[in-house]
Amino acid sequence: MYIKRRNFLQLGSLASGSMMIPNFLKAFEKPAAVPSGNKVVVIIQFSGGNDGLNTVIPVRNDIYYRQRPKLGIKKEAALSINEEAGLHPSLTAFRELLDAGSLGILNGVGYPNPDRSHFRSMDIWQSASDSREYIDTGWLGRYLDAQCKPGERPTKAMEIDDVLSLVMKGEQMKGLAFRDPRKLYGSSQEKFFKELSAAHKYGGEEAPVDYLYKTMTETLSSADYIFQQSKLHPSRQAYPASALGQNLKTIASLIFSEINTKVYYVSLGSFDTHFAQEAQQKRLFTELNEAVKSFTDDLKANSRFDDVLLFTFSEFGRRVAQNASGGTDHGTANNMFFISGGLKQKGLINALPDLSDLQEGDLKHTVDFRDVYATVLHNWLDADDSRIIGKKSNYLGFI
Amino acid sequence: MPESKTSYNLHLLSRAGFGPAASDIPLLDKINRNDLFRQMLKSSSSVPEYINVASNVMQGLFKGIQEEGKMQQLTKEQKQEIRKQSREDLKNLNLRWLEVMVNGNAALREKLSFFWHGHFACREINIFYQQQLLDIIRKNALGNFGDLLREVSKSASMLSFLNNQQNRKQSPNENFAREVMELFTMGRGNYTEKDIKEAARAFTGWGFNLAGEFVFRRNFHDAGVKTFMGKTGNFNGDDVLDMLLENPQTARFISTKIYRFFVHDQADEKRVNWLSQRFLKNNYDISKLLEDIFTADWFYADENIGAKIKSPIELLVGIRRMLPMDFEQEQVQLLYQRLLGQVLFYPPNVAGWPGGKNWIDSSSLMYRLRLTRILHDDDNFNAKPKDDDDVMMGQADPGVKNKEQKIRNKKVATSTRGLVNVDIDWALYISQFKQVPKEKLAVSIAVVLCTKGTIDLDLIQRYAEKDSREDYIRSVTIAIMSLPEYQMH
Question: Over the stretch A289-326, which tens digit does the pLDDT of each residue have?
Fold first, then answer.
């Protein structure tokens, strides 16, 4: 047998180590074992600062209607939750989920010293930091750091987007971002990168460039894996053609497969409604409502609704008072939706925000968002939340 | 060994500048590295030209406001118009500065400015204030850190971004004081919360007017006695900055950050100690600190060469310096910046870009590896960057509303919105290799493009086009620029 001696050019004076197959590659050969009844989290980020007060409407609150003479949603128009509160008229599927006991609403979620810059506040929510500290890893990235064993596929947390968010970046591990498994697969089929990846020699000690080769190899391998998985049990449910609809369909197909993914992340926006809020929020909530309807129907039909927790958040809510342009400006605390067949608390989990006790025209938070994360990590994902959040949290009772 | 001479010079050009231009290639194996550094210092010695991109519309609008005297008198629509125009102009400021990095001859000055741009990270939408801050940074980039700190601290951009306009005796706002200490001078853990409160009092009354000039508003200033870092007196903001500069921790913090940016992600304690002592002794002379670094033997040590991941701006500018190119739509470069995670004038927060491995994830890496081919139009590019609500104020990106930005090569029609047409001028680059025999071409190209690595030349050659010498050089160059090794410097 003739083996062609490869012509390697050594630049600089890199000391060559012995040929080794790195552990992370070896482990990929093993089949992934996923127990059924596997708990999954799906997060929908409302980008831009969703107006919480017009999402869960305090229909008997005079202050609300006084502060929002034009923008306030009338009691008759809102979808009733109870005597005190109603849902935005576009959220019909959410109203049905509420009846079925599959929707929970947490009010007044935020953090001390709220920041009103989109980017900064989103940073705070994604990194789970205090408003005065800067952390360059995200809480789900740190979840990956804490949970992934050496050699495990980096598909445990995935974002349906072209660009990976801070939330998915850990110290050692990072989630994967892609919009469509087929597209991801197509772009990873390039022979050049495959050969390059196969030819790279890892020395005994990690060279700085090894990190890039490792990421490249993992990406190519994961692209294959995700695509194969997405074809195992593709969703047969009809979904709306909207971006969110298609993204949730992708997620559903992966949830039905044998993939090891625990967390899916997807964004909807922009909710930054400084002007003409009514039309904009209605458009986005219609998209949300239709997509979530298909998704929850799909999960129920496939008996996975009890294992999947979907929750929503936004970087901040908006001010109590409307502005002069038919919109609202940046505010603070906000509500979150929780959807699952496995909720322990349903409907309004806590009290509506107190509009008579404001701080410079803004809501005061009553629940720290990191307690919500900790609850999800501890009660749903069985993870060491204090290590991930960086402190002991107070668990909530909704799951 | 002549190859190590080339490698040292490349290392220097890449770290102290944005990498070699095609026309620098003949110099690489001839000049001595210390002479090269002196040459870089010299070509960066003159005062940089002010970059002014504010459009006539904006100049007019702004002049109007100043004459009226009050921003508050504007209607909501006028304010919106100003913000929209400012945002557009800010894109041009980004592109013009990028152009200076690529084609200007003050590589060292622009590289340091790029560093300070991340150090004094500031998100401010007002184009005039941003232009002014960039000018302060570029003028002082190689000068005295104390001057730089004082001028930045008194700039409208920074005072606005860090809310010092709202810092008043009756209701102090600590944001500015906190970040000056945590991020600009000493670093976390070297002062108390009480020090921040006292410094905030000293900065009360520091503000700016609409023209972007610093204004000391005496009525808002707290003239009382403060106790700051163990000293007691009637301190004002200047006193606080002086005390911060006197503190050796500031020299250490800045030296460490410079070492991590220019030498290695992991700071070497002994070297940083040495550098910071000299930095303090030299009264914060930035050029002297750089000379200490770039003429030190350890800077050229094996573990420091090829050890850093290029930032997206370094990558883009580096490619453009080596391969001169014309963009039909320059704005496409903003899209690359967004996809790769670094947009000039939009740092993630006041702490700047974290850098290092943070640049790399599955998506950003694959975009980076494809970038040269995309520019050379051998690759289809089809991606939508994330929206930035701080930038867009609730409006959709032009041309990307709810659909993917499609960027395709010029073999497809060029009239559709979003198509990119880039012309690379290969002639100068190819002519650099005219003396090189064909069988040595791939090696010669690899040596000037990557400072380090084990490159599989067989693989590269298998993907090379062999129709003509020019095709061969082009395709080998693009293949090497598509390697992970090219992402490092």
Answer: 999 999 999 999 999 999 999 999 999 999 999 998 89
Asked whether residue B321 falls in the same domain as residue B361, the answer is yes
User: CB–CB of A243 and B485 under 8 A?
Assistant: no
**CB-CB under 8 Å, B354 with A49:** no
Orientation angle between helical segments B145-153 and B237-246, nearest 10 degrees: 150
Question: A140-144, B275-279, B325-329: which has the minimum mean pLDDT?
Answer: B325-329
What residue type is assigned to position B248 of the chain?
P
pLDDT over 50 (residue B401):
no
Question: A299: phi > 0 → left, psi -120 to 50 → alpha, else beta; which?
Answer: alpha
- How far B74 CA lies from chain A's nearest CA (Å)? 14
For residue A269, the cross-strand partners are: A47
Residue B212 lies in a domain: no
Pick from B405, B424, B443: which residue ends a domain?
Answer: B424
Domain residue limits at A301: 23-389
Q: Same structural domain for residues B420 and B330?
A: yes
B360/A213 CB distance under 8 A: no
Asked if the C-beta of B225 comes within 8 angstroms of chain A's C-beta atoms, the answer is no
Task: State whether A272 and B459 contact (CB < 8 Å).
Answer: no
10 Å CB burial of residue B67 (0-12, 13-18, 19+) is: exposed
Interface of B with A in 373-392 (CB under 8 A): 382-390, 392
Chain A residue at shortest CA distance from B179: A132
pTM attached to this predicted model: 0.88
Contacts of A51 in chain B (CB under 8 A): none
d(CA B457, CA B435): 20
pLDDT in tens, B153-191: 999 999 999 999 999 999 899 999 999 999 999 998 999
Q: Confidence band (pLDDT; 50, 70, 90) for B420?
A: low
Domain endpoint, select from B259, B282, B304 = B304
Question: What residues of chain A lie within 8 A of the CB of B396, using their CB?
Answer: 270
What was the pLDDT predicted at A33?
40
* Total number of domains in chain A: 1
Tokens 């890039």, residue?
A212
Are B349 and A119 contacting, i.e. CB atoms less than 8 angstroms apart? yes
Question: In this structure, is residue A398 part of a structural domain?
Answer: no
Best of B72, B363, B387 to disrupt the A interface by mutation (most A CBs within 10 Å)? B363
Distance (Å) from the alpha carbon of A149 to chain B's nearest alpha carbon: 19
CATH of the domain at A244: 3.40.720.10
| Distance, CA of A310 to CA of A313 (rounded, Å) | 11
ipTM of the complex: 0.91
Q: Which residues of A touch B387 (CB under 8 A)?
A: 47-48, 269-270
CA A244 to CA A239: how far, in whole Å? Answer: 9
Judge contact between B8 and B33, C-beta under 8 A.
Answer: yes
Min Cα–Cα distance to chain A from B28, Å: 14
Which pLDDT band, with edges at 50, 70 and 90, does A1 fall under?
A: very low
Backbone angles phi, psi at A15, to 5 degrees: -75, 130
pLDDT, tens digit, 9 for 90 and up, residues A9-25: 666 543 333 344 455 55
pLDDT-derived band of residue A150, with 50, 70 and 90 as boundaries? Answer: confident
Q: B339 and A187: CB-CB below 8 Å?
A: no
Tell me which chain B residues have a C-beta less than 8 angstroms from the C-beta of A19: none
For residue B390, the enclosing domain spans 312-424
* Cβ atoms within 10 Å, residue B276: 22
Question: Are B276 and B346 in the same domain?
Answer: no
Q: Which residues of chain B are within 8 Å of residue A243 when distances are taken between CB atoms?
A: 402
The pLDDT of residue A321: 95
B427, B416 contact by CB (below 8 A): no
SS3 content of chain A, % helix, strand, coil (to 5): 35, 15, 50
Contact list, A273 vs chain B (CB under 8 Å): 394
